[in-house]
Amino acid sequence: MRDAEFFRRWMAAAAASVAREADRLTELDSPIGDADHGSNLLRGFTAVRGELEGDDAAGTPGEVLQQAGRTLISTVGGASGPLYGTLLRRTGKELGTAAEVSDEDLRGALDAGVAAVAQLGGAAPGDKTMLDALLPGVAALSTSYAAAGDAAESGALATVPMLARKGRASYLGERSIGHQDPGATSSALLLRALAAVAEEEDA
Asked: Residue 110 belongs to what domain range?
């Protein structure tokens, strides 16, 4: 079973990963976006880490993710804030008020979170968005956390030959082909961070 501390560690690990990869995320965003994906997420996840370490930190898994989602929405510019915020808020809402949740509970909640992202962004698999990492990653959670991280990374790499159909990159038409989607890449970082924390806890 996973308690609130597990989810705080997940968000902290995600923040550390974004900090390490912020320059790369911005570099990926430069040719097909606004060249600010890394800096935006760095600001947002730094704020999340600060919020979750405060005296009034959330006390249940669902509350942790909802608090993280609200913080991202209020601190991250562009589309990333609402999309990542929706992912975490909806996942947290699905987890309810339980003090501990099972891995199966988390898988189901993440399914709902990803569906909410798809609805908000109007995107589908193959549109060259964060969904191309999130969908295979969350599906692979039924195998293991490590498999989820691997599947998300493979999904991000698979966006390179895709034609962007949603988001800022879609304005470029065929010029979007040949570039890895930054949102899919950061989504893979999020799931890889989850896998690392789960592996550490289960060791």
From this structure: 2-202
Per-residue confidence in pLDDT tens, the chain, 203 aa: 999 999 999 999 999 999 999 999 999 999 998 889 999 999 999 999 999 987 566 689 999 999 999 999 999 978 899 999 999 999 999 999 999 999 999 999 999 999 999 999 999 999 999 999 999 999 999 999 999 999 999 999 999 999 999 887 887 888 889 999 999 999 999 999 999 999 999 98
The residue assigned the tokens 């996973």 is: 2
Return d(Cα 144, Cα 19) in angstroms, integer: 25
The CATH number for 119's domain is 1.25.40.340
Q: Show the 3-state SS of 93-153.
A: HHHCCCCEECHHHHHHHHHHHHHHHHHHHCCCCCCCCCHHHHHHHHHHHHCCHHHHHHHHH
101 phi/psi in degrees, rounded to 5: -130, 155
How many structural domains comprise the chain? 1
The CA-to-CA distance between both ends of the chain, in Å, stands at 14
Q: Rounded to two decimals, what is the model's pTM?
A: 0.95
C-alpha distances in Å from residue 75, one per residue of 8, 84, 97, 169: 18, 11, 25, 22
